[in-house]
């Protein structure tokens, strides 16, 4: 693909490295990234953190041809990773976003639009019902969204509906780079059978965003948000070189159908 658009997904439940293999891969990362992996206690968390970084470096390498050792990924104050601008980009607004939850780690990239990705999975503690558990999070939803969730049907359908709304909201705040500090309750999603998804922000419908929802399996959902680079928070706008992209170019890219995820194995992400 010549357009810098990628969607990759790794199922980490299929990857069972030995301690030595794992340590080798960690050792190939820049020192600050190594610490970001080893700070986790649980091996599952370390796996997600490592694969997240392998995806980021491999994607930048494959799309832009930058040698692995020369890639510099910085983070905004809100934590969103971006490629350091020292390099001459073929794609002015090249940006990417990673998410990891449960069995999956994914990455999405765009070269014109802003992109946010969220992967979400929900496990209800044994002693609680689905409804009891999700009630703890009701303040993140609007009245209309909450009604749709609790009236979705049996327990599994309620959970599924919850996950769909949640990952759409997160994909938006991850695209802008604001993170959860933005206030998920400020977003209200509308849809027709989970296609034609649109968002109202602080009660006002925004036409400048496109959303896509994926059921990865019965337990995991993913969503992609695409929007205008000028909607990024200030810290992330500084990571892009053409925030005021021409309208026509932007709309052409925004309206393209989402290409969907390509599965990748960790073995295909080895540092070069
Ligand atoms: N915007 C977009 N992406 C972000 C981000 C942000 N503000 N912060 C981190 N990310 C990326 C990272 O790549 C991270 O993975 P990595 O650490 O392995 O590289 C990935 O998103 C994690 O996403 P996800 O798996 O979906 O995690 P999550 O659901 O637990 O939460 C955020 C993700 C971004 C919503 C949440 O961590 C958040 O709100 N962070 C902002 C915190 C903040 O504002 N701090 C201010 C300090 S001054
Ligand atoms: Mg998330």
From TrEMBL:
<dbReference type="GO" id="GO:0005829">
    <property type="term" value="C:cytosol"/>
</dbReference>
<dbReference type="GO" id="GO:0000287">
    <property type="term" value="F:magnesium ion binding"/>
</dbReference>
<dbReference type="InterPro" id="IPR055066">
    <property type="entry name" value="AASDHPPT_N"/>
</dbReference>
<feature type="domain" description="4'-phosphopantetheinyl transferase N-terminal">
    <location>
        <begin position="14"/>
        <end position="111"/>
    </location>
</feature>
<dbReference type="Pfam" id="PF01648">
    <property type="entry name" value="ACPS"/>
</dbReference>
<dbReference type="InterPro" id="IPR008278">
    <property type="entry name" value="4-PPantetheinyl_Trfase_dom"/>
</dbReference>
<dbReference type="InterPro" id="IPR050559">
    <property type="entry name" value="P-Pant_transferase_sf"/>
</dbReference>
<keyword id="KW-0808">Transferase</keyword>
<protein>
    <recommendedName>
        <fullName>holo-[acyl-carrier-protein] synthase</fullName>
        <ecNumber>2.7.8.7</ecNumber>
    </recommendedName>
</protein>
<dbReference type="Pfam" id="PF22624">
    <property type="entry name" value="AASDHPPT_N"/>
</dbReference>
<dbReference type="GO" id="GO:0008897">
    <property type="term" value="F:holo-[acyl-carrier-protein] synthase activity"/>
</dbReference>
<dbReference type="GO" id="GO:0019878">
    <property type="term" value="P:lysine biosynthetic process via aminoadipic acid"/>
</dbReference>
<dbReference type="InterPro" id="IPR037143">
    <property type="entry name" value="4-PPantetheinyl_Trfase_dom_sf"/>
</dbReference>
<feature type="domain" description="4'-phosphopantetheinyl transferase">
    <location>
        <begin position="115"/>
        <end position="222"/>
    </location>
</feature>
């Amino acid at each position: 693909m010549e357009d810098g658009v990628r969607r990759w997904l790794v199922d980490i439940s299929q990857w069972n490295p030995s301690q030595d293999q794992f340590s080798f891969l960690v050792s190939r990362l820049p020192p600050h990234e190594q610490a970001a992996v080893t700070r986790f206690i649980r091996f599952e968390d370390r796996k997600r953190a490592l694969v997240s970084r392998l995806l980021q470096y491999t994607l930048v390498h494959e799309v832009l041809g930058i040698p692995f050792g020369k890639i510099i990924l910085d983070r905004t104050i809100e934590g969103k990773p971006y490629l350091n601008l020292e390099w001459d980009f073929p794609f002015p607004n090249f940006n990417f976003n990673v998410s990891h939850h449960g069995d999956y780690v994914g990455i999405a990239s765009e070269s014109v639009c802003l992109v946010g990705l969220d992967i979400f999975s929900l496990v209800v503690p044994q002693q609680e019902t689905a409804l009891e558990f999700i009630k703890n999070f009701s303040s993140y939803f609007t009245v209309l969204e909450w009604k749709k969730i609790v009236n979705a049907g049996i327990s599994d359908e309620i959970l599924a509906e919850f996950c769909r709304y949640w990952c759409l909201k997160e994909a938006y705040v991850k695209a802008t780079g604001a993170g959860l500090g933005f206030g998920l309750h400020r977003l209200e999603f509308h849809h027709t059978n989970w296609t034609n998804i649109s968002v109202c922000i602080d009660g006002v419908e925004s036409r400048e965003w496109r959303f896509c929802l994926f059921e990865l399996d019965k337990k995991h959902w993913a969503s992609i948000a695409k929007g205008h680079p000028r909607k990024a928070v200030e810290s992330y706008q500084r990571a892009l070189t053409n925030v005021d992209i021409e309208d026509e170019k932007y709309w052409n890219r925004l309206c393209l159908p989402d290409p969907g995820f390509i599965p990748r194995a960790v073995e295909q992400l080895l540092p070069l």
